[in-house]
Amino acid sequence: AQSVTQLDSQVPVFEEAPVELRCNYSSSVSVYLFWYVQYPNQGLQLLLKYLSGSTLVKGINGFEAEFNKSQTSFHLRKPSVHISDTAEYFCAAQGGSEKLVFGKGTKLTVNP
Amino acid sequence: DTGVSQNPRHKITKRGQNVTFRCDPISEHNRLYWYRQTLGQGPEFLTYFQNEAQLEKSRLLSDRFSAERPKGSFSTLEIQRTEQGDSAMYLCASSFRWGTEAFFGQGTRLTVV
């Protein structure tokens, strides 16, 4: 069975500061990894995904993530955040079946 | 392409009533998923269709829940004899194939009173 752990439930940062949202996964099979963003009362939007190949993945809105197989991590980073990045971020894994297994989410709050 | 559409957006129902939600996926996507999201949690998988075939169901999907996807197009999720614990956001997603992006609808928020 797979599981996804997001280590921080809330992350407050100031505008233009860098941010890292942490995600660890466990799986007995190879997995695909995803980061989604959810704005209030909205569905989820894909930020980026890792399927194979380069371990550094670039996504939309200036986000990137690095797949680390030895540490079973897939942390999301952005070098300089904006107020508009305030949202909830979900890490998800897919492997062995079609379903996505999500973490509990990290609420990112960007303060002026 | 209008994306994944879910109706209604909000539903308030009394405990014990039946409710039905509809999801219209992106037209060329043959895979359709239902997830449930409660406050402070990530989405939890409920069930998955490939075309009209329901290929996987979560143990979360009790016998009060049923999902259909006739003709492999839109899907419905019905909850019978609703309970307060069913209050949640129900999300539908569709994708073209495994490993590709799953596009999510805006969800149906169910409140059972």
Please compute the radius of gyration of chain B using only Cα atoms.
Answer: 13 Å
Could you name the ranges of chain B where pLDDT drops below 50 across 5 or more consecutive residues?
none
Distance between the termini of chain A: 41 Å
Query: What is the gyration radius of chain A calculated from CA atoms?
Result: 13 Å
Beta-strand portion of chain A reads: over 45%
Tally of DSSP β-strands of chain A: 12
Greatest contact between two chains: A-B, 24 and 27 residues
Quaternary state reads heterodimer
- What is the averaged pLDDT score of chain B? 93
Q: Please, how many helices of chain B? A: 0
What is the succession of H and E elements of chain B? EEEEEEEEEEE
- Percent in helix of chain B: under 10%
Number of E-type strands of chain B = 11
- Measured between the Cα atoms of the first and last residue of chain B, the distance is 36 Å
